[in-house]
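User: Hi! I'm working on a homework problem where we have to compare a predicted structure to a textbook description. Could you give me the structure for the chain below?
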Amino acid sequence: MLTRKDPQASDRVAGPAPNRASYGSFATFSDSDGNGWLLQEVTARLPGRGLSLDLTTLTELLQEAEKRHGEYEPTAPKHHWSGWYAAYIFARENGSTPDEAAEDAAVHVEGAVRAAARSV
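Assistant: Happy to help. Predicted structure tokens:
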């Protein structure tokens, strides 16, 4: 396992990163075919790198999205619910309030509807 003395420098030292910082430690090796490999230790994902939700939190977000989508649906253009839910959950996972996430989801759906209409 390797880490850098200074994150801005290119020198490597043996051992894990201090405090086992996520993305701070890595290992490199080559296989018998000559392919080079680099592995990074990830203890906590950075925002936007996969869902980091547990089952309870995801369930709560889906229920929240269902309620918000129900409020949007009567005035919405024809769309599939999954696009709205995905945009809503993505926004909430990235720190938006429920109101901001609902607005983001609406903008996403309406933009997709306009794009689809232009392609016909």
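For your comparison, note the following. The chain has three helices and four strands. The chain has two domains: 2-40, 55-118. Good luck with the assignment!
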